[in-house]
Amino acid sequence: MEFEAVIGLEIHAELSTKSKIFCSCTTEFGGEVNTHCCPVCLGLPGALPVLNKAVVDYAIKAGLALNCKINKETYMARKNYFYPDAPKNYQITQHETPLCSDGFVEIETEEGLKRIGIQRIHIEEDAGKAIHEGEHSLIDFNRSGVPLIEIVTKPDMRSPKEARLFFEKLRSILLYAGVSDCKMQEGSLRCDVNVSVRPKGSNEFGVKTEIKNMNSFKALEKALEYEIKRQINAIKNGEKIIQETRRWDESKGQTIAMRSKEEAHDYRYFPEPDMVYLKVDDEWIERIKATMPELPDEKKRRYINDYGLPEYDANIITSSKELAEFFEDAVLNGANPKTVSNWIMGEVLRTLNDKDMEITDVKFTSRQLVKLIELVEKGTISNTIAKKVFAEMFETGKDPEKIVEEKGLVQITDENAIREIVNKVLDENPQSVADFKNGKTKAVGFIIGQVMKASKGKANPQIVNKLVEEELKKR
C-alpha cells in the first residue's frame, strides 16, 4: 500500500515594531535579563494593556502580502494556561476572529506551480523565555509581550520538500514586506508542524502528530522525513499512531515524544475584557496597501520581462530580498543585467554556498562587482583571471583594479608575445600537431589550453584561438 503525507504548518513571526504589543517596552533582541519589561508585560495586578497600532498595521501588511481577506471587526481573547513563562497565566491572542483569513502562497514544485492555503493570521503576544540551568529553571521576561503573528496554513503540503519550499517562500515574503526580520537564530521566526499519513487516494485524515519549534529549513525537512517514515512503518507493523507533541533531536536525527495530545487542551478562550473590539475600515486597509513594496513574485516577473532573465535565474535571485537588492544595485550602476545575473548565479552563489554565508556577509559591494565586469568587457583581464580576482575580492573586499595591479594580472594582447608562447607550446607537443594534421580537431583545444596555462591565463583567448590556428596551418 502506498502512503502520502498531509502537512500543515503553524508559523510564529515576531513583528518588527519598536515597542511591545500592549506597552511601550522595547522589542530589541538581547539586553540584560528582565530589563525590557514593565508592570504590563510582567502581568502585575492593575496593569492594563493598550494595543499598539503599529502591530495591527504590520499584521494587515502581512495579510495583504499573503493574499488574505482582512476581517473588519475582530476582538482579542484570553487563552488560559499555566506555565512559568506566562506571567498573567493567560496569553492575549485572537481566537474566533483572526485579523486575516483565507489567503495563499504559490510555490514552484517539480510538478509546476502549487497553491498552499493560508487559513488564518492572528496577532498575539509572545511569552517569556525559560532558561534551564542544571536543576533550576530561570525566566527572562524581556521577550514577554513582544508582538507576534501566527500564520496557520491549510493541510495542503504533501512532502517535506513542499513544506520547506513553502517556509522559505513565506520567509522571503515577510522580509520583502518588511514586517519581520525573520532571524530564525534569534527565534523571531519559528515553526510548528502538524503531520499525518494516509493511504494514497484517501480523503480521510490520519492521526496527526505535532513537531514543535523548528528553527531552520533543514531541520524542518529532516524532521518531516523522519516522522513520515516512522508513522508509515508503525501503520505497516499494525501499531496505533498516537496524537502527541514531539520534538526534533538534531544529534539523534529523530523526533522524540514530549507529551500526549489524545485529549485536546481546553484553553477556556473568552473575549479579553480589558480591550475593546478592533475595527478596521477600508480607509485603513487602503493606507496599508499604498505602502506595500514590490513582492518576490512581482519582482520575478519584472526581471523576466524587463531584463530578459531566464525564469530560473529570476526565481533564485528574487528568493532573497538582499540578493535582489545586490543585483539591482549592480544594474543601476550600469552593468548588463544578464551579465550580473551570470556572475550571481555562478561565482557569487557558488562561493556563498561553499562558505555557508549569506550575501549580507560579503566584503565587497555590488559596485565593485560592476568594476570587475567592466575590466573583462574592456579586455583588461580575461574571464579566467576575473574568477581569480573575484576570489581575492571575496576574501579581502579590495577593489578589482587594485588586485589586478598588485598581482600583475593585466591581459596580454600583444600578438607577437602570444605567438611566441604558441610556437613554444607547439614545439613541446609534436604529437598534438600530428594529431591535428590527421584530422583530430580535439588537439586544437588541448593546445589552446596549454597556451593559456603557459601565459598563466593572461593571454587574450580570442587572439590565442586565431594564432593557434594560423601557426598549425604553417606546419
From TrEMBL:
Pfam families according to UniProt: GatB_N, GatB_Yqey
Catalytic activity, as annotated: L-glutamyl-tRNA(Gln) + L-glutamine + ATP + H2O = L-glutaminyl-tRNA(Gln) + L-glutamate + ADP + phosphate + H(+); L-aspartyl-tRNA(Asn) + L-glutamine + ATP + H2O = L-asparaginyl-tRNA(Asn) + L-glutamate + ADP + phosphate + 2 H(+)
Molecular function terms from GO: asparaginyl-tRNA synthase (glutamine-hydrolyzing) activity; ATP binding; glutaminyl-tRNA synthase (glutamine-hydrolyzing) activity; transferase activity
HAMAP family the UniProt entry points to: GatB
Keyword list, A-Z: ATP-binding, Ligase, Nucleotide-binding, Protein biosynthesis, Transferase
EC number(s) stated in the UniProt entry for this protein: 6.3.5.-
Physiological role: Allows the formation of correctly charged Asn-tRNA(Asn) or Gln-tRNA(Gln) through the transamidation of misacylated Asp-tRNA(Asn) or Glu-tRNA(Gln) in organisms which lack either or both of asparaginyl-tRNA or glutaminyl-tRNA synthetases. The reaction takes place in the presence of glutamine and ATP through an activated phospho-Asp-tRNA(Asn) or phospho-Glu-tRNA(Gln).
Identification of the protein by name: Aspartyl/glutamyl-tRNA(Asn/Gln) amidotransferase subunit B
Subunit structure: Heterotrimer of A, B and C subunits.
Gene giving rise to this polypeptide: gatB
